[in-house]
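Q: How would the structure tokens look for this protein?
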Amino acid sequence: MSLTTETYGYIAAGLYWVLILCWLTILTFYWREHRRLRSLETIVGTMLVVVFLDGARTLLESVYFGTVYTARAGILPAYVYELLSEPQLVLVPKTVNLAAAVTIIMVLVRQWFPAMREELDRQRQTAALYEELQHAHEKMQTTLDELTAAHDELKRTHEELRAAREAQDALTHMIVHDMRTPLTSIITGLQTAQQADYDSELTPEMVDHALAGANRLLLMVNDLLDISKMESGMMTLTPEVFSIRQPIEVAVTLVGPLARDKDITLETAFVENDEVQADRELVRRIIVNLLGNALKFAPRGSAIRIAVSRVGRASLRVSVSDSGPGIPPEHQQRIFDKFHQVANGGTNGIPSTGLGLTFCKMAVEVQGGEIGVQSVPGEGSTFHFTLPAAVTN
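A: Here is the predicted structure in token form.
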């Protein structure tokens, strides 16, 4: 069944009055709650004002058109429809719409846009403050890391100082203990010579023991003094050209009595053209220290070999090999450190302060050479050092 024009009029009028009731409900709710709504942020409050104005405009327009359609449907007198259809009255809702639009624009311009600008400024300030706080946090973290690093450095320094103090105490103890042995040999020999019933045939043996003790004592004192000089850069060298055979033979003669006491054979091997340019006395003491170190660990009845070889045209190498217990790999990099000692077997009763190899390393390097060790645990060790070869025309 098709709907008539009159029916459409009733429907349109009904829809408008339903819309009017809805807007009245919304505006009534807003009016009752407007005090609480005003406590919201400026932007939210402004938007609610805009909604209220737009709702009021829509309500007035709906009242106008609802009345027109109601009169047109015959529910209201006909003159009402004729009156509202006059051109001047048709302008009323349009004017209301325009006024509402202008009012909304003014509200937006005066309140919403400044509030929005303030909100944007506040957000920018918040972002800048957050960035500053982030930067400050990073600086504090950097400072904390620096303080942690400084604390760790101070802790390491404290540990190094403590270790140095312990090493100093250990050195004092070792020096006192190790000097006692050669001093005892010297004093015993002299006291024996003073006795009335002294057998003169023992003189060579007593003198040898006394001299050996005195030489060991002198060697320790010289090592201490020379290490101190080399560490401070005050070591004076006397370089000269000489055959490496000469200081080796002197060193073998000096440690010979001790080797014989231990039933150890000293073997030598030389090469032709074995001249070096170095400090003769320092070289002799290096060889004596290396031989003394080998004698500490070489087993009785074994042999120690001193060999000379050429390294190209610029250097000569001196090697001292023994068949002792060898050096563990973890100690081979530290064997030349001051006071470092390896408990890897007996020392044949020969005392040590842990300074001999340190002296050798510094004495070799101060003359432009290099020193090292090759060792296999259980198979012995070979200490070797190089010296500049003499320049020949």
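Residues 237-388 form a domain with the Heat Shock Protein 90 fold (CATH 3.30.565.10).

Residues 344-351 have pLDDT under 50 and may be disordered.

Upvote if useful.
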